[in-house]
Amino acid sequence: MSHPQAGEAAPAPLSDASLPPQHAAARIISGTSVANEIKSELSSRIALLKTKHEVVPALAVLLVGARADSLSYVAMKKKVAAKLGVRMMVYTFEQCVEESSLVDRIDACNADADIHGILVQLPLPEHICEENVIRRVAIEKDVDAFHFEHLGRLARRDTEFHPLFLPCTASGCMELLRRSAVDVRGKHAVIVGRSKLVGMPVSLLLLKQDATVTVCHSKTQNIADIVGLADILIVAIGQPQFVRGHWIKPGATVLDVGANAVRDNSARGYHLVGDVCFEEALTRAGMITPVPGGVGPMTYDYLYPCSQ
Closest by alpha carbon to 43, among 82, 78, 14? Predict the structure, then answer.
């Protein structure tokens, strides 16, 4: 290190203003907190339905086989339904059930005026055509919004043909943005993933709110460069920590829809990570959802009649 010579003035110390700017850690968007707020609001609406109209919202769930993940999801849905005051019936079937038996049960639920929503827990066994079963659900009871007419209505810009239901995860993403005071108008939103459950519907919802939307997928070239343009980044591809922190535009809002089980030596044997490398993204994003506790808790709140 050189020192000033005789007669030379010592250099002035660096001021804070001349130092390179340090990006503050991203603000965490807690889906758990927002989901609890929504549950409280829904409980009030459902209680009013009961007292004013003597209507108890009812959801029928069809569960085939005994997959651990499906059993877990249905148990969680039943727990949330009980808290909200929604009546939930679970119709269970053996793994070897014939498709016609499922269709008959759906027809019966369609015809039952006391059932307001129907949900088929996926995946179904390989010998059953999921499309045949899903399309059998009456559109006015299709709370999963799997029917093609829901997506078609969503794609229309006019106000006459609103979809009766919206896919729950896409709805949850939009509500997280709204309650986090993220104004999407004119912003560049990049969606990584084009699934019918998340990527496609959330892209259409963002377009309806005047965002500029880019959808990336497995054939997209230079995906890191495109991600770096995003003011709002939503990632839903099911690949652990696919999006690296240095890809992200400083200050961007990041919603990580992924929930990937990574094996470890814990008592449970695994831990969950998202599709975004969270620790890296913390130093770049302005706001970000964690995994778990981010988008996941939101999905259950939009599966019930009266929730949309």
Answer: 82
**Which amino acid is residue 17, in one-letter code?**
A
Structure tokens that stand for 239 in this block = 């690949």
Strands 260-263 and 270-273: what pairing?
A: antiparallel
**pTM, whole model, 2 decimals?**
0.86
CA distance readout (Å), 58 to 50, 182, 275, 282 = 12, 34, 34, 41
Q: Is the dihedral of CA 197, 200, 201, 206 positive or negative?
A: positive
Contacts of 84 (CB under 8 A, 6+ apart): 39, 42, 43, 46, 304
In contact, 212 and 188? CB cutoff 8 Å: yes
Closest by CA to 54, choosing from 12, 114, 2, 140, is 114
The residues annotated as belonging to the active site are: 77, 121, 144
- Which one-letter amino acid corresponds to residue 30? S
270 DSSP β-pair partners:
263
- Taking 3-state DSSP, the helix, strand and coil percentages for the chain, each rounded to the nearest 5, stand at 35, 15, 45
User: What is the DSSP annotation of 101-119?
Assistant: HHHHHHHHHHH-TT--EEE
In terms of Cβ atoms closer than 10 Å to its own Cβ (0-12, 13-18, 19+), residue 215 is middle
Name the residue among 101, 104, 97 with its Cα closest to residue 127.
97
Tokens of residue 35, six digits: 């989901």
Residues 212-222 pLDDT 10s: 999 999 999 99
pLDDT digits over 46-90, tens only? Answer: 999 999 999 999 999 999 999 988 998 899 899 999 999 999 999
DSSP secondary structure of 204-219: HHHHHTT-EEEEE-TT
Which residue is associated with the tokens 């390179």?
20
